[in-house]
């Protein structure tokens, strides 16, 4: 990760007000893990047309989001209250 | 995600009356995660004949749904009462 | 999903008498998720010779069943009593 | 699944004496899920040389076993006593 | 599995002193599941150059280890004390 | 793993101060599992251009990180306090 990214606080908490915000956090954590591995935004932009038009990749993206979301939902006790 | 989609409340809660509604919510969350990555509905329609007639993709879809469902089921305490 | 399928109650509960029934329910939920994505039974029948004779697909099927089963087992408190 | 297999009680319980027995049960449940999808033993024997000499398949087999084992371990409260 | 392997007690417990030992146990359980499927060590040695120089396989190996580790960590209550 | 690596204490605890540190630990555990399988750093460097410019691999990396993170988050009780 680029140094200035590493110093940045991007994940202060797993707590969100609603499940939908939890879903959005899951998406952003999934993307952050990709960016941690490939920090070069231009490369990521080049890759977008490939996976965004590939059914297998899109299905896999959903599975990855589901795994991040599972942790966020447990953290928020499933927003039961 | 298109701006007006982002403002829309599509996930007010993880709670459902029955496991079957929980299953349906899992399917819709799985699809939403795909749409969050590929908002263009025409592209998604173009892809449908590919994955809907591909055994490996269909098996993967079921695995993704299972991961979303696991979280929804835990949220609803497995509809035990 | 075809309208009459959607109205049908196929998942009244996650509770089963035995782990083996829980295993069978996991298999049927896994298959239901496929059918929700590809409702056309003829297409599914056409695909069967492909995945049922493909080692990678069969291994993936088992992994998918394991994920569905994990939720059903937790729902039934692992049939400990 | 062949009718006489379906009637057979092969999974009376998830409880095992030791983690190693739990590991063995996970392997057999993983294989059972494959057999539920492909009951023809000859076909499975034909497939063996393929996956048993394929690194990607063997790694995937381990991941599948891990998912089955996770449920069995939780059922047995991790054999802590 | 070769008979003498089956009789051998290789997994007396999931308990480890430290997370690092838990990580090592996860790696060995992951490898054991592979060996249960392919007991022939020569075949496994032949495969090593393939997966050990394949990015996709190496990423998959890490995911498999993570699944085994998740169970071991839960068994040890995350070594919180 | 090289002997001197094996003796090194790299994972004293799963506890971290913040979710972000937990995310970083998940990334490092994911990489450690790869290094345990392929200790040769030069080989890993050779592989980097492949997976770091491959959408499918990058998505899979995120899924693997999510699985490691799930365990670390549970260990830290989701940093709720």
TrEMBL record, chains A, B, C, D, E, F:
Superkingdom, taxonomy of origin: Bacteria
InterPro entries for this protein: Hexamer_Tyr-coord_heme_pr_HTHP, HTHP_sf
Protein name as annotated: Hexameric tyrosine-coordinated heme protein
Organism this protein belongs to: Paracoccus stylophorae
């Amino acid at each position: 990760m680029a140094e200035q990214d590493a110093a940045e606080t991007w994940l202060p908490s797993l707590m969100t007000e609603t499940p939908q915000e939890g879903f959005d956090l899951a998406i952003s954590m999934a993307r952050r893990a990709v960016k941690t591995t490939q920090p070069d935004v231009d490369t990521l932009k080049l890759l977008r047309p490939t996976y965004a038009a590939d059914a297998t990749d899109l299905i896999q993206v959903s599975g990855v989001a589901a795994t991040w979301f599972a942790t966020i939902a447990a953290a928020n006790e499933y927003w039961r209250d």
